[in-house]
Structure formats: C-alpha cells, structure tokens
Amino acid sequence: MKRLMRIVMCIKSVKKELVYQEDEYQENYVMNPYDLYALQNIIEAKKQGTEMICMSMGPEAVTDTLRRCIALGVDEVIQLSDKHFAGADTIATSYVLKKAIEKIGNVDLICCGQKTVDGETGQVVYALSEQLNIPCLSQVESITDLNQDTISIERVNGDCSEKIQVGLPAVISYRNCTTIYKKINLLRLKRAQNHKIVVWNMNDLQIDPSMCGQKGSKTIVQSVKKHHAIIKKEQTILDGDIKDTVHVVKNIILGKDNGVCLYGE
Amino acid sequence: MGNKKLWIISDQHEAYATEHVLQILHKALKLKKSQEDEVSVVCVGLNREEQFKTLFQYGANRIIFCEQKSEYSISFFVECIASLLKDKQPDVILFPASITGKQTAAILSVRYRAGLTACCTDIQYDHDMDRYVFIRPAMSESVLAEITCINDKLQMCTIKENIFDSAFVTNEICWNIADYTYEEKEAMRKVQVLERKALNLKERVDIKSAKIVFVVGRGMKHCMDLCQTVAQKYGAVIVGTKAAVEEKMIHENRQIGQSGISISPDICLSFGVSGASQHVVGIKGARLIIAVNPDKNAPIFEYADYVIVDKGEHILQELAL
C-alpha cells in the first residue's frame, strides 16, 4: 500500500500590529498573512487523505497561531523552540527547518509563504530548498496539478507567465497574502485548545549550537533605527467650490502648476 | 584592505542591460573606494554585443560572460553563477531582487555560507571598519536596519527596482569582456517549463513608468467606468489597493503596496483610498499626491500634497467635463 502524501507548511507568528490595525484579535501575535494565504490555499489544493503538518520556529508566542492551524484542519503542529535559535538569519533559520523536516521524514512537499511581514526577506523558501537539495517553485499563483510524484503550478515571472512542473519532493511558496481566515470554526478552535503541540529543541533536532541562531548566521544586525518611510507633507486643502477644486487638479495634471513637470510638450 | 571585486549579476538571458541592472551598476560604481576596485557585470545567456556596449556606457569596468545558447533554465543559471563565484571569489555581489535574482542569491548564500541581505535600500562602505554596511527597511518599513556580514568574501545583497538611479557614464568605452565556459549537465533541469509566454501588453501595462496614476480604493467600486473614461482623457494609468483587487475592480498586477508593487509617478491621484500603511509604502515615490476621500480623517491625507474631502465620483464627474 502506498503511504499517504505528506505536506509540511512552515509558518511564522508576527506581531499583531504589523497585520491588523484594529483590536479585532486578542492575541499579541498572529499568523504572518503570507503564510495564512499559503496555508489556506494548500489545504484546498491537497487531495483527500493527505497528511498536513504545520511547523513554526519561535518562542512561546507561536502556540496560539499553531492552534489556529489545527482549527483550519491541519493534522499535526510542531513548535521548534530553543533559546539557541534566537537571532537567526535566513541561513540559520533554513538549517533548523531542514533538520526538522528530516526528523519528520517522508515529506513530499514543503510549502511556505512568500515572505514575513516583519523580516520581509523572502529568502527562506529558496534557502530551504538548497538546504534540502530539492527544487523550489516560488511565487505560485495557483496549483494546477498535485499528486504524489509531481506538482504543476502557474506563476508570473517578470514579463512572462509560466506553467511549470517539477518532481517531488519540492519546496513551493505562494505569492499572495491575506488577513482573512476563510473558515475557522469556533468549535474546532475550542477543541484545538486541547491539542498537544509537539515541541522540538536543539537537542531533539541534533543541531550543533554553532549552526543555529545568531551563531549560525552570516549576517548581523548592527542597529535598528526608527524610520518614517513616508514623509508626512505640508498639505494644501482644496475645500472651495468643486469647480475651483477640480480646476486646480486639472492644472496640475496638465502641467500648468509650478513645481510639477510639464506634460504634452 | 586590498582591492575589492564588486559583481552585479544580470538576471536576464538576453537583454542584460535592463534599467534595473543599470541602477544597481550605478550604485556599485559609487561603492568603489579607489580606481583599483573593479565593478563587473555577470551575464549568462546569448551573445548580445549591443547590450554589452550599454553596460560599458553605464560604467561597467568588466563584463563576465558565459554563453548559454539553450533555453533559459533557472537551475543552470544558479549552477553557472555558483561555479563562477567559486573560481573568481568576488567580494560583494549585488543581485536584482527578481525571482531569478533572489533565488540565486539565497541558494548561494546557503551553499557558500555567505551573508545575504534582502532588498537593500542603501549600501555604504565603512572606512573605519573596512566593511560594507547593508541598509534595509523592515517591519512594514517602520524601521531601518543596518546589517553587516560576518564572513569576509562573498557578501551578497539583493536590490529592488527603482531604488537607485541609473546614470550614463561615457561613450568612450573600453571593451573588457572575460569569457567563461560552463557546461550544462543533464541533471540540472529538474524544473520543466511546460509553457512560458510573454504577458500581453494589456496585462503588462507599464505601470512602473506611468507619469500619472489614478489609485482606486474599495469606495470607487460603482464608478469604475467613469474612472476609466477620465483616466483615458488625461493619459493616466489606473492602479489600486488590495481591497480594489479583492473587489475585482482592477487586475491583480495593478496592486500597489506591500504585496503589490511600488511606483514613483509624477502625479498620483487617489480616490477613495483610506491609506493603510501597507498601501502607502507603494506610492511613497510619487512626486505629488492628490488625495480624494469623503472621510476627513482618512490617513492618506497625511501623506498628500493636496487634500480634497469629497466623494471620488464627484471629482471625476467634474474632471470628465
């Protein structure tokens, strides 16, 4: 008898304020929106009888997020947690994920979100494929076929649309993100509270301390400065008669306003 | 100390001298500490003399060219660059942050244990410490992180499009092309491309180079026709927020913001956009922002040059006249 297909989804918890503006969630940490999109889509794309495992490297705060995965219909959740994992860059992170995937064993497909909204590197998916020495298909728009041996996807790459097929095992990542849980059932969420989360630390994964966390990283963050990406400007409020207002706008568009470049010359 | 070798990897198979690559090239030239430092552009693919010429005109000191006549394959590209790095040991490698660029950078960073910084908005050379400092925004662009590499050789970063300016340097060019040979092995093509086709023009409207854009938010759902008429009249390109995509008002490739693209038009008119930070980062490059929203407390107004508290529809109706 052929064994079940096994999919591992890598997720991350991020600070709530990076995702939700309002206080609609009680938790301080929520699932990274890119991971949520990927998870919900892979759950829809997988065949009946596929085993789904979610794992996340992170401290205590990730447990709530992992419980939500159970409520969404995931079979098993694993937390990779150890003080030695802190301060990891994408090299050290992908190494820990690789060790966990090897420990799980018989994994056919690994799925990730495009990037996280806190680190925003978008590198882990590729780094993980190199760690595991398997191919990688990133920025997936949709999965057109998924079976035990191959996966076919569609995506946009620069100015081209691509239809690509690759043999499994492979790593994929979806392009898009969402903050909306499509169908999270409160009863299941309640039941998920009792689900035992498997926790693996450095020793469980047989990881050498020099290979993970800040020690295993090749980049170091020297400083972090507050940054206002967008400069708040001096505003001109146009609150007169609508005709006058639109006249000003027209002039700007048609380049009759000083300080704006000219058009149609 | 010593002389540094700076490399830029072109992510194209043929049109090497893209605007994106020229922008990175210009930045790399500014990182030269002295004339002895060398900036090279690495090209893998077809032999295109006019492309090489452009790269030299924009200041490349050297081109490293690996001819590859068969169809582009990402796995071959990665292995070819991997072999080059091993042979020639550059100090700093700058990649375009495209799928090809990011994938190559991240894979090689793991393989050679080379520090990699994603999507830099600036790179500086720190004379006191004799090291490069890679600067990038994180946390929804609320912070700027300064990152350095622990390893010495092979420090890498990726750079998004339109972060730096490109600049023409000279017509008096000196050809300096180093040919490199790398044989493709059968096993390399793990990924099968079933179909690759250029997006048609309609899907590919060059929003990045648009001079005037109309940004629509969810509030404009019922008057997209009017919006299109007016946009056409003034030669504006319509883009929108994530909400507008979800409402099927605009195509997904016209989404501006964190999960879409960033644009830097001369004039940006936003209609019914509230201005969530995830969206606003996508229009921060606009020279002038005119925001129209019926809610006088809409966050977008803080970033606008001109504020109009009104329904987008009313303004569009007037503009149509």
Given the helix and strand composition of chain A, which structural class is it? alpha/beta
Overall shape of chain A? globular
**N-C termini distance of chain B:** 66 Å
C-alpha end-to-end distance of chain A: 74 Å
The number of distinct β-strands of chain A equals 13
Strand order of the largest sheet of chain A: 9-8-7-10-6-1-4-5-11
What is the overall pLDDT average of chain B?
90
Q: Based on CA inertia axes, which overall geometry of chain B fits?
A: elongated
Helical percentage of chain B: 10-25%
Q: Please give the most extensive interface between any two protein chains, plus how many residues each contributes.
A: A-B, 78 and 81 residues
Walk across the major sheet of chain B and give the strand order.
Answer: 5-9-4-1-2-3-10
| Helix/strand class of chain B | alpha/beta
* Poorly predicted parts of chain A: 258-265
Q: Classify the oligomer.
A: heterodimer
Would you report the number of β strands of chain B?
16
SSE string of chain A: EEEHEHEHEHEEEEHEEEH
Ranges of chain B where pLDDT stays below 50 over 5 or more residues in a row are: none
Structure annotation, total helices of chain A: 6
Essential attributes:
heterodimer, A: 265 residues, alpha/beta, nine-stranded mixed β-sheet, two-stranded antiparallel sheet, 6 helices, 25% helix, B: seven-stranded parallel β-sheet, elongated, Electron transfer flavoprotein subunit alpha/FixB family protein (chain B)
